[in-house]
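Deliverable D5.2: sample structural annotation.
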Amino acid sequence: MKSYERFDGVINRTQAESEPWWPTPPHPGEGAPNVVVVLLDDTGFSHFGCYGSDLATPNIDRLAAGGLRYTNFHVTPLCSPTRASLLTGRNHHTVGMRSLSNFDSGYPHMRGHITNHATTVAEVLRDEGYATFAVGKWHLCAMENASAAGPYDQWPCQRGFDRFYGFLEGETDQFHPELVYDNHAVEPPATPDQGYHLSEDLVDHAIGFIHDTKSVRPDRPFFTYLAFGAMHAPHQAPAPYLEKYRGRFDDGWDAARDNWFARQIETGLLPPDTELAPRNPGVEPWDFLPENQKRLAARLQEAFAAFLEHTDAQIGRFVDSLDQLGELDNTLLILLSDNGASQEGGPFGVMHEMKYFNFLVEMPDEAVERIDDIGGPHSHANYPWGWAQAGNTPFKWYKQNTHEGGVHVPLIVHWPGRIVDAGALRDQFHHVDDIAPTIYETLGIEAPATYRGLEQIPLSGVPLAYTFDAAHADAPTTKHVQYFEMMGHRGIYADGWKAVTRHEPGVPFEDDDWELYHVTEDRSECHNLAAEMPDKVAGLIELWWREAEEYGVLPLDDRTIELFFTRYRDHSPHPVDRHYSYFPPMSPLPAQVAPALGARGWDMVATIGRPEGAAGVLYASGTENSGLSLFVQDDRLVFDYNCFGDHHLVESEAAVPVGDSTVGVRFRRTGAGGEATLVIDGAPSGTVTVPFAMTIISSVGPSVGYDHGSPVSERYRGQFPFEGRLHRIDIDLLRGVDDADQAGADERAAMSRQ
């Protein structure tokens, strides 16, 4: 017969006349190092103790003391793009991740997933014989493909990882996470009352995966990608960590910035002539703030610090486990942040981060009424701009921006078996697309030119492994040029100079005001030389356009929240007729797979068979912080519209029939709000007015027949599953004047530009 697989033996008529042959499985060779990448979210350049702060990060500091700290390392300004670049060694636009994986703008640079023409580190290392594990945040597949219906082709296990445990979205509740194990959704193994926290769970699984492989195949090295949900909002930590920081930040962000900056200068993290950047617009002097604003801001920073220290403790557990296995010395461990500190808490901070995405400003006098909830299961908090800029000390601006505050982050490399000048600093300019080439060069591996029959995009990154050697501690950088772009914000670094512009949405790109900094000497971008050196600015802008052409940055696109809105088309989770039918039992739905019930009218009908006394949730979406829930309780139909803790609730006038019936709710927009009317077998049975109709309700999607995660309504506890027979849920989204898709997008986009 024709041979379809390689066979180097001999086949004759009998076994006695033949020679067997066994293929040799791939193996990277004796002594090949393990590789671990630890990624934190929304963590600024100064947040770690070893980068200047007085926040407690003893385990991260221990890694720095045993390895190298990089003082001039850069990423993209946002999470998904950095992750795409980190795992491929290519620029983020090139691989289809201009912005968040929640978006598909219709252009090659924004598809919501990494193109198959760009292998991930996991795909390359797995083919070399490595065991590969991803744990934590993914955020690299199109979110409408993140449900149990798939397709799964861009999930971690289909992009090179043997095992996965974590979450697919950009954020999740640390006490009630939406979890995926390999290719299926799972519930958290415990509750907050039982001491559950996601960061601990992630490290438990990372340790377990490694123990599994090393127990059975001790010869086989591993690649572990440990991407915490921390330090992205919500900032949540166990109570003892929160209590430790009570009162620690009452002196405010100005004092913190001054102290952290002084430590950075003292320890050589910055050139000695570096200046502390002025406060960003909207950041007021701490001493001038009203008392309630101070109380709220200090407590929000306490939650961030507690979350960071708790995360550090989990990193310590993970590193200790490698040491106990005898694997730490031979492990290349790389720890970094995906972007600078987040501005998404607004000027005052928020009890609930989703308010930021609904353009609602929560005033401190209102928020302090729930101040003791901050950091616990009953909040979804994010801190204000002032603390975000402190985290980015000494820089200006934040995550999303291409100034240094958005893209200049800590990088620690720890490898006892290779790095001899432990505790040293490295000041060479490098970028996140240099990490994958560094891993390949270190392991003696070449990225494939073709993979599974597809031509591969060349790497854009350059290895930084030369900096591991003490002899090259002061060697000139091998990274000479790097562009930046995010939502129209742009920047270009070239041999110690940087041109950068902060773009305002809707302003013509040609009208953007470009700044010029000699960042070799002016690391914090304090001295704008554009007026003095217009030719230099013009040359760098021209270089930016050339880089943009080469790496697929175009077309420029400054849309933001507009891209969250659903794109309706058949053969997708969102059909053109906008009719959805769900048939339980079924797994919970990610938010972007589900019907978009925000800021629009809709009808929901549940077809049920109900025994006498049966109660429970028919449909719930969101969390205890914001969401909506339709349920049966005490023989009545109940609808609860939870708008950031304000519960607008209606209970049916008529009893829900025993036996078969249809029950539901009609929601109609009225101005900024709406009216929800309960319906039983086609007849109205009670109405409630909702003053404000949320546009983006929650990052947590719906569950059918029970309430997944923290309960949306205060009228029940736990999942409160429906005790009868729920045959189906039908949802219709309304069109026409009540269809808020485009109107809401335009209105809120305009608000975001003010």
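Annotation notes: The longest strand covers residues 659-670. The longest helix spans residues 291-324.
The annotation will be released with the project's public dataset once the embargo ends.
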